[in-house]
Design goal:
This protein is an alpha+beta fold. Helices cover 33% and strands 26% of the residues. It has a 6-stranded mixed beta sheet with strand order 5-12-11-10-8-9. β6 and β7 form a beta hairpin. α3 packs across α4 and α3 packs across α8.
Length: 289
């Protein structure tokens, strides 16, 4: 039980305790205590042909800095998906199920595209009602801060921790996870650690690379890892039975299966494809549900 200053509520600062769970969902965290026990990989071959045609059209008269990118579209659709299908936004802590109070995505960015450039962590909160242009502004602002060497809270925390001797650092880590296990981790630490998020993303397409099957982080609250691969033309059979080339991108989801059932997850991926097929709708806020 936590106290906000107004009324007590069950849960954590970053999550509402989910109590109306089926019996199987209540038992699973005891059978599979960690995310590593419950990891499932789900690859999706995302058809982006219509999206790429639309991006060419919508960006034709835009300045380079105002252009909508593929990653902006993916973040917009994912935020809307998490808003419409809130079971995706759940996580397990202390063998209990919580639902995030916010939609937060984390990802890693390089300060520059070379082997020696530093990596920085980006963590952005969304409402799921943003247009794709509003997401573009949020993402580009966060990336500009990172690449202009403006350190965020995660960078500051890491730079301080790495100065500690190894045994002390290990003890600090244990203390952090112990506080988290009893829902007492301070908000400043939660905000500084990128694994406290709805999902963690990696955009390998920006490096012209394929999507890896990535692990989940054992700590934090991100029960989904989204790995996005490069866009490539592939042969597909169209409605007329002809073989044609269509652009596709592989997206690999690494999922904590204790969070929700497979049908819900697969249907969510199908809905993502439907929205990618109708990108013009992302220029307006989503309808109310």
């Amino acid at each position: 039980m936590m106290f906000t200053g107004a009324r007590p509520f069950k849960g954590r600062r970053d999550g509402r305790l989910v109590e109306d769970l089926p019996a199987v969902r209540r038992v699973e965290p005891h059978l599979m205590p960690t995310r590593l026990d419950a990891t499932v990989y789900y690859p999706q071959h995302l058809d982006v042909e219509r999206l790429m045609v639309w991006l060419d059209e919508v960006n034709r008269d835009r300045a380079p800095e105002n252009r909508i990118r593929f990653f902006h579209v993916i973040l917009t659709t994912l935020a809307r998906l998490y808003r419409q299908r809130p079971k995706l936004n759940r996580f397990i802590s202390g063998r209990r199920t919580y639902e995030h109070r916010d939609i937060v995505f984390s990802f890693t960015a390089k300060r520059a595209k070379n082997d020696d450039a530093d990596e920085v962590q980006v963590r952005i909160a969304f409402t799921g009602t943003e247009t794709v242009d509003e997401v573009r502004v949020k993402v580009d602002a966060a990336l500009n801060r990172a690449r202009n060497h403006t350190r965020n809270e995660s960078d500051k925390l890491v730079s301080q921790l790495v100065k500690l001797p190894g045994p002390v650092l290990a003890g600090v880590g244990q203390a952090i996870w112990a506080l988290d296990s009893v829902n007492l981790l301070p908000k400043a630490l939660q905000d500084a650690i990128p694994m406290y998020a709805s999902a963690y993303l990696v955009n390998m397409g920006s490096l012209q690379a394929e999507a890896p099957f990535h692990h989940l982080y054992r700590r934090g609250t991100a029960g989904v890892f989204v790995s996005i691969g490069t866009i490539r033309p592939e042969p597909v059979v169209d409605e007329a039975g002809d073989i044609v080339a269509r652009r596709r991108a592989d997206v690999v989801y690494t999922i904590d299966e204790r969070v929700t059932d497979g049908y819900y997850l697969v249907r969510s991926a199908q809905l993502l494809q439907e929205w990618v097929d109708d990108p013009a709708a992302l220029l307006e806020p989503p309808p109310h549900h």
